[in-house]
Amino acid sequence: MSNPPTAVGSSEDNPTPASVIRQSGAAATAGVPFRERLIAVEQAQNPLREASRVLLRALADMPDHLESSETFALRDLLEQEMRVFQKLCEQTNIRRDHMIGARYCLCTALDEAATQTAWGKGGSSGIEWISSGLATTFHEDRQGGDKVYLLVARLLTEPREHLDLLEVIYEILSLGFEGRYRHEANGKRKHDAIRQRLYNEIMAQRGPAPMTLSPHWQSDVKGRRVSFYDFPVWITVTVLSVVLLGLFGWFKYELMSRGADVQKQIADIGRMTPPPAPKQLHLKQLLKDEIATGTVSVDEDARHSAVTFRGDAMFQPGGASVKATMGPLIAKIAGEIAKVPGKVTVLGYTDNVPIRSRQFASNEALSEERATQVMQMLQAAGVPANRLEAVGKGDVEPVGDNRTAQGRAQNRRVEILVAHQA
Q1: SUPFAM superfamilies from the entry (predicted)?
Q2: Which of 204, 209, 221, 338 has the greatest CB tally within 10 Å of its CB?
């Protein structure tokens, strides 16, 4: 694991174990009174980020080497600070789902950072961190490497509502957490893409940082034009170094100061009430009498409902006008179909005996006109026109043997097919 950037104010590239134990939790918890931290959280632009500042710093300053006793001490301090963080959120009325979400992500990131070190992998000089990790203690969960990214995807559907939490997760990703992408092919590219998307959403909501650091850096007094060559090289190098160091410090401070807003939604996600299932058709129950008499047949499953009319019961031989006796039945079916969403297709079929009629040039033309007539009756009974379609199939897809009169009668039919929406 590559070392994450150091926290704001740290003057060490690789802090000693003792300093990390003091600075990662103890100094911020014991050195700063709880009341002062509470006031800082209440006054912060992002209270969640301010409340998690100490934990983010601990993530940034995770040491490479620790003695066994220091390992246990650091583990206890992080658990204590996690409880202080929760208390700060509760007393400042931060949304509970944001608090839980941020706590879950922080626990997962701290566990990952620890397990990337020699002392966090167990052995004679430490503890096997994963068996007693923070995520296990607070959430009884070891799948954070996957779930953090699932949480990000869910939060990005409503970025304005969850902006504080997204900022905290962005800082966690920026401080070295990679989760499942740490060992995945092209994982770093995927991780960077998610982190960049978070940054873009945050900037879209917060507004971009000003591009000009000092708009009035030049004096309004005009004097002798100074050449670049008038300055000694060492002054130029020194000034440039100071500017770069200042820019680094400023950007580092801005990054760390935005790290306190993402912890409330993980526990509530599993308890969310799923949306109600779309209403389904129950045509078999509705048409049980007609099914019993053989007027129609119904085929229903989770994906579609199909009502099949015998053509001889619905039309005169060779004709396309629906018999008046079928009107009430079609209206009853239309009333039920209009209550549910989904595409409605009316399919007309004939037998294979060629039609000899001036009105219809082929069996396909006859079947299409019959389907159109039924479709128009469905529309008149309340089914929206934009859901309806009529298709003439002619003598294709027979269900009976066209060599027998009974089989040809079965093939002369009209089907109303309703596709259910998921």
Answers
A1: OmpA-like (SSF103088)
A2: 338
Strands in 388-394's sheet, in edge-to-edge order, are 296-300, 304-310, 413-419, 344-349, 388-394
- What are the structure tokens assigned to 89, written together? 């959120």
- What would the pLDDT profile of 85-114 be if each residue is shown by its tens digit? 999 999 999 999 999 999 999 999 998 888
Whole-angstrom CA distances from 36 to 32, 42, 85, 343 are 7, 10, 13, 62
CA distance 314 to 294: 12
| C-alpha span between 253 and 140 (Å, rounded) | 33
Does the global pTM surpass 0.85? no
373 and 260 belong to one structural domain: no
348 bridge partner residues: 392, 414
Evaluate whether residue 85 is within a structural domain: yes
- CA dist 277 and 27 (Å) reads 53
CATH number of the domain residue 113 falls in: 1.25.40.590
User: Tokens 């090289």 sit at which residue?
Assistant: 233
Per the domain annotation, does 236 fall within a domain?
Answer: no
Same domain, 69 and 205: yes
- Angle of helix 163-174 relative to helix 233-257, nearest 10 degrees, comes to 130
Domain span at residue 352?
A: 283-419
Domain CATH for 370: 3.30.1330.60
CA distance 178 to 187: 8
How does pLDDT run across 233-279, given as a tens digit for each residue? Answer: 778 788 888 999 888 888 888 777 776 565 666 666 666 676 666 66
Residue type, 243: V
Tell me if 393 is assigned to some domain: yes
Number of domains present in the structure of the chain: 2
User: What span, in angstroms and rounded, lies between the C-alpha atoms of 127 and 130?
Assistant: 9
CB-based contact 360:354 (threshold 8 Å): no
- Taking each helix axis as running N to C, give the angle between helix 96-115 and helix 163-174, from 0 to 180 degrees, rounded to the nearest 10: 10
Identify whether residues 52 and 111 lie together within a single domain: yes
